[in-house]
Inverse folding.
């Protein structure tokens, strides 16, 4: 069985081992597969029966060019980079990693909020630049210092990650409300369900933990921002396309939105003309909520399990059949 990994570097820049996949077949790993030439993806797949990808697209054209493909394994939770419907029509299962990063992604979301509340990195830089030693007072701060206890956090999407975030926020003394198309008893234990409109109007901080669907694309836009509290804080480490970036930049610059912290943008890597790059009080990190070594190790192990289950004739975590 031939296995090809199209873009292994972000999953494993050298601190993990491919040994588990090597035991399952004849393995070839590419650090990156540039997508400017779509035919390169098909050439690199070659005669491989199992294709492993993180963010390299596997299109209808690639599937047609590689009729020997039997399984497409995505090393992530999101799988929109694969034409899953066409793969299904060809009898090719697409499998993903559904729950590797619940704790670390929620940890990162709260970390983004804490950075907004105190701007730790900024103040560390000013100290190292000599500002504290020359300060006429015994301390200084360049941004409002924000206490979270007693404030209201609104979570849009109360699945596994949303619930983990809610537990952290609750422990910090915040009132947690949530909006989700599917309510659950587990969700009710950590948050109060409200309508999306009520959440927008009440929340001091809004977290986006929902999937990218037709009904959630552009969820944060001029019209919904208008229904939010003045000075609201927005945290998004889910999907960049949930936000209309020009509208958010406008709201940040007008101070309708006090601050935003984003680990995702609509086009990645970020384009130099993204309006959020010049917006006031906007923190942007390069899609790394998932990247703790522990989480990446789980991705590696679950990918091995996905392939092993397929080879045994009992595929798991199939998202397209």
């Amino acid at each position: 069985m031939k296995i090809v990994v199209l873009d292994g570097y972000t999953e494993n820049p050298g601190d993990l081992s491919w040994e588990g996949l090597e035991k399952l077949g004849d393995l070839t790993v590419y650090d990156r597969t540039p997508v400017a030439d779509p035919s390169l993806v098909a050439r690199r797949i070659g005669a491989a029966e199992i294709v492993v990808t993180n963010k390299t697209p596997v299109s209808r054209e690639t599937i047609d060019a590689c009729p020997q493909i039997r399984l497409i394994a995505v090393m992530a939770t999101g799988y929109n980079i694969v034409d899953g419907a066409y793969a299904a029509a060809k009898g090719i299962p697409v499998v993903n990693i559904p729950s590797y990063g619940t704790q670390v992604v929620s940890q990162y979301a709260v970390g983004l909020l804490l950075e907004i509340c105190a701007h730790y990195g900024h103040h560390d830089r000013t100290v190292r630049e000599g500002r504290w030693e020359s300060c006429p007072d015994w301390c200084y701060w360049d941004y409002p210092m924000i206490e979270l206890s007693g404030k209201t956090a609104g979570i849009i999407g109360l699945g596994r990650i949303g619930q983990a975030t809610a537990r952290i926020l609750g422990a910090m003394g915040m009132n947690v409300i949530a909006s989700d198309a599917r309510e659950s008893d587990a969700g009710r234990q950590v948050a109060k369900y409200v309508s999306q409109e009520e959440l927008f109007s009440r929340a001091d901080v809004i977290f986006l933990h929902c999937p990218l669907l037709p009904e959630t694309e552009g969820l944060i836009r001029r019209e919904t921002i208008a229904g939010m509290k003045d000075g609201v804080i927005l945290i998004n480490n889910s999907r960049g396309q949930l936000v209309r970036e020009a509208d958010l930049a406008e709201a940040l610059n007008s101070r309708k939105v006090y601050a935003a912290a984003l680990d995702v943008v609509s086009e990645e890597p970020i384009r130099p003309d993204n309006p959020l790059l010049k917006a006031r009080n906007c923190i942007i990190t390069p899609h790394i909520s998932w990247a703790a070594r522990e989480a990446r190790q789980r991705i590696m192990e679950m990918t091995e399990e996905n392939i092993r289950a397929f080879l045994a004739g009992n595929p798991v975590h199939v998202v397209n059949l």
